[in-house]
Amino acid sequence: MSSPGLHAYLVLAALVFAIGLFGVLTRRNAIGILLGIELMLNAVNINLAAFARFHNDLAGVIFTLFIISITVAEVGVGLAIVIAIFRVRRTVEADHLNLLRG
Amino acid sequence: MTAEGIIFWLVAAALLASSLAVVLTPNLFHAVLYLAAALVATAGVFLLLDSPFLFAVQLLLYAGGVVTVAVFAIMLTERLVGERITQTNRWVANGAIVSAAVLAGVLGFVVRSGQRAATVAPGGSVDRTPDVARALTGPFVLPFELLGVLLVAALLGALYFARAQD
């Protein structure tokens, strides 16, 4: 087997994406859900970096940079919301956040 | 097998193992530490993909910033770190089925796409960091500036949400 091609990176990214999706769907803690989202975004970054490398196109690298920056902003706001919810409800379990239930 | 291939399989194994640990470990604090390991492994993948600049950004922003903030949030919200009984909801089997279905769909696309573009385009330089800088200040300058606006807005929003109440 020679050095890994594009498909090896794509399969690796798909596996990480599926693992992250599983985490998002099954964690009950809101922070755990955010960790799963981080994994999924990482998988997409691997995809874009691999396409940039194997197609010799710089746009993939730029996209990855933008995704990383936006993810940092998303994590900052998301965790701030989690902390704010914890102040009000004393819990961060997603199952218990039914404030809007009629 | 070439050295690059061996390193790829090692990094891939580390990435998959730490990713599985992130979603499966019952202790949320350990999950964040495993996430740090997964992010460093992803940085290794970027290094394998001839992107040293992405490697640096990944380490600085993800492994340095996101993990630290997540650890802070867990310490602020978890009362009994390490003593939680169950961290998963009732739908573990359903989540596994949906994830497996998505994985099968994506892998189906990957396999069907064939090998037509799986070779390195000739003439690519190894270190493309100067090209990244030129692209960011050239054709991508407007999204780059918008990113600055977004970061300021997110910073102010996070401060507003997490501020002390009165």
Task: Give structural notes.
The complex is a heterodimer of chains A (102) and B (166). Chain A has 102 residues and is mainly α. Helices cover 75% and strands 0% of the residues of chain A. Chain A has helices at 6-26, 30-54, 59-89. The model of chain A has no long low-confidence stretch (mean pLDDT 85). Chain B folds into 2 domains: 1-84, Four Helix Bundle (Hemerythrin (Met), subunit A), CATH 1.20.120.1200; 127-166. Chain B contains 6 helices and no strands. Chain B is mostly helical and 166 residues long. Classes of the chains: A mainly alpha (102), B mainly alpha (166).
Per-chain topology:
The complex is a heterodimer of chains A (102) and B (166).
Chain A: H1 6-26, H2 30-54, H3 59-89
Helix pairs in contact in A: 1-2, 2-3
Chain B: H1 3-24, H2 28-48, H3 52-77, H4 92-112, H5 129-137, H6 141-162
Structure summarized in a few sentences:
The complex is a heterodimer of chains A (102) and B (166). Chain A is an all-alpha fold.
Shape descriptor of chain A reads elongated
SSE class of chain B: mainly alpha
Low-confidence stretches of chain B: none
What Rg of chain B do the Cα atoms give?
20 Å
Number of strands of chain A: 0
**SS summary, helix count of chain A:** 3
End-to-end Cα distance of chain B, whole Å, is: 63 Å
Order of helices and strands of chain B: HHHHHH
Q: Total domains of chain A, how many?
A: 1
Largest sheet of chain A: none
Q: Main β-sheet of chain B, in a few words?
A: none
> β content of chain B, as a range?
under 5%
| Biggest chain-to-chain interface with counts | A-B, 72 and 87 residues
The overall pLDDT of chain B, averaged over residues, is: 82
Distance between the termini of chain A: 59 Å
CATH 2nd-level architecture of chain A:
Orthogonal Bundle
